[in-house]
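Progress note, sequence design subtask.
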């Protein structure tokens, strides 16, 4: 498989433009793994990070670690709000601007994540993605947790009871979710960092492995396109038609970024 670096005729090597863009959340739109941040807050970081990395690197099936991590963490609604805020504080550079540009140019943007919906949805809507285009794993809570009698609405002390059955808790579940969201005749791209994203590459027309937050060896070695810039903005150069969106500052910045760091984009043939 031959690697074409971004400096060499990228306009001839890049994929055809797409209509829909699917993003992962953790380590793609935010630099953190939400579950690992939750573990840090709970004081069990080492074990959870070990499980997460093993799953994202493809060493252990995701479904084998999902329930175990949540059992160890037992998150509350308040914890989920804290993770949402942590996502916002660690947003990948230019994520909001890139999503806004895609919308302005008529593209549909989705988030498909194995993360926890209470945090991912709040973060995703803050980025500008419509709620109905965000998919993540829902949780059920024990409504009799803590001083439940003090609350007429949501009790922040409600503890995790169980997670909702979802394909996104499995290694290959993103395939089914993405296929269910796609419309016939629209070209689609997926951008993600982990092995579950790589496993879903055949559900879209274009897959970009993103290593700007964490460069995972399995994805770096097998993604047809691998991007290692800290910013997500260069994705625009692979989504849009030549000459499209030239007035956008974020596209200009993306082009300059790759001109300065051409080895951060690899396109394989």
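Output:
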């Amino acid at each position: 498989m031959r690697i074409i670096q971004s400096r060499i005729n990228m306009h001839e090597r890049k994929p055809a433009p797409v209509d829909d863009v699917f993003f992962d959340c953790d380590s793609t739109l935010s630099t953190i793994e939400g579950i690992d941040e939750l573990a840090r807050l709970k004081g069990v970081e080492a074990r959870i990070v070990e499980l997460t990395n093993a799953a994202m690197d493809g060493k252990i099936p995701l479904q084998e670690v999902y329930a175990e991590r949540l059992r160890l963490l037992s998150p509350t609604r308040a914890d989920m709000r804290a993770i949402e805020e942590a996502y916002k504080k660690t947003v990948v550079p230019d994520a909001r601007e890139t999503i806004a540009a895609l919308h302005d140019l008529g593209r549909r943007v989705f988030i498909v994540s194995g993360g926890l919906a209470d945090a991912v949805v709040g973060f995703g809507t803050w980025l500008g993605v419509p709620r109905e285009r965000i998919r993540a794993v829902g949780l059920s809570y024990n409504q009799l947790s803590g001083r439940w009698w003090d609350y007429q609405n949501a009790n922040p002390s409600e503890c995790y009871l169980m997670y909702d059955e979802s394909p996104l808790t499995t290694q290959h579940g993103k395939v089914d979710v993405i296929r269910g969201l796609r419309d016939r005749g629209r070209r689609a791209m997926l951008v993600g960092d982990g092995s579950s994203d790589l496993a879903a590459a055949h559900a879209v027309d274009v897959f970009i492995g993103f290593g700007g937050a964490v460069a995972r060896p399995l994805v770096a070695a097998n993604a047809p396109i691998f991007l290692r810039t800290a910013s997500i903005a260069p994705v625009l150069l692979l989504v849009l038609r030549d000459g499209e969106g030239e007035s956008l500052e974020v596209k200009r910045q993306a082009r300059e970024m790759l001109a300065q760091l051409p080895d951060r984009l690899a396109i394989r043939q």
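The longest helix spans residues 77-89. Work on this subtask will continue into the next period as scheduled.
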